[in-house]
Amino acid sequence: FERDAQVAGERFEAVDCPVCGTKEATFFLKTFDRYVFPYEKKYRLEKCRNCGALYVNPRPVLENQDHYYPIDIHNPFLEFEANHQDFFQKLYAFVHPYAISWKRKQLEKIAGVGRILDVECGNGDFLYAMRRHLWEVMGVERIQKYANFAHRTLGLPVLRSIEDLSGATIDYFDAITFWHSFSRFHDPVAVLEKIYGHLKAEGFLFIAIPNTRSLDFYFYREDWAALDIPRRLFHITPAQMQKLVRRTGWKIINQKQIGLDYFYNALLSEKIRMERILPSRFFSRVRYFRGFLVAWLSRIVGITGNGSGMLYILQKRKL
What we know:
Elements: E1 6-7, E2 10-13, E3 25-31, E4 43-48, E5 54-56, E6 59-60, H1 87-111, E7 115-119, H2 125-132, E8 136-140, H3 144-153, E9 158-159, E10 173-179, H4 188-196, E11 199-210, H5 215-220, E12 234-235, H6 238-246, E13 250-257, H7 259-277, H8 284-301, E14 309-316
Parallel strand pairs: 7-8, 7-10, 8-9, 10-11
Antiparallel strand pairs: 1-2, 2-6, 3-4, 4-5, 5-12, 11-14, 13-14
Helix pairs in contact: 1-2, 7-8
């Protein structure tokens, strides 16, 4: 797998650590795109020798990002569809409204109600719910088909890039959110710097991101659904998030575990592992039982501060 190679229409580039910029890294593991069958371990995760962050290297170039969101296998519109294909999709559709409600409550606890920018807003379902609760909303979505759905179907104002944010939104938003989308950016430091001026001085930045120090990651490793490679390009722990934030003008004022992520990540990881190793209807009940067990154990261990998914709440540092 050569760097800067072109394989089946894909193009890759060699990179330094996106968290600290260090060039030195060691091989960590090889994994696969969970939406592409048969599973082929062709993506390389490296571990930074300086900060310990994990990142895809070589990684897909920015221009090819749409390639990894084929609608026939990566469907972000399940909650809008009447027919769902399997147990996991039905479970997702059932739980999804509660997940959105949880997100809204986290914001309103500390930010009240105001103006919100959701970066990588997907199909817009979160912003649609926020607008119903009197928030003034705006989204950013790089994938064309998702942006079209959010704008044309749900009537939401959606930009295609954070670079499209104008001077009219300087010191404008009360909250900016990244719901498991932050690690999809090629340059996280540049993203934090770009959005800095668009948040009010007393506003809040919310970043939800998977945590590779969680027990379920150690159990599933390359089968861990939250790796989501090649869409997610790097993975960081709470300690590494602190290092990343210190490179910019932000500070973390609070962090908390995302309870539903334990079960989503463990159950989907179990499904991936069984399909990859031993597909069988007989084992389907066993795999979900084991997934629930891993999720509960991970949640217990997560009391130490290492949840399967972490929500970081940031503010601007006062100079």
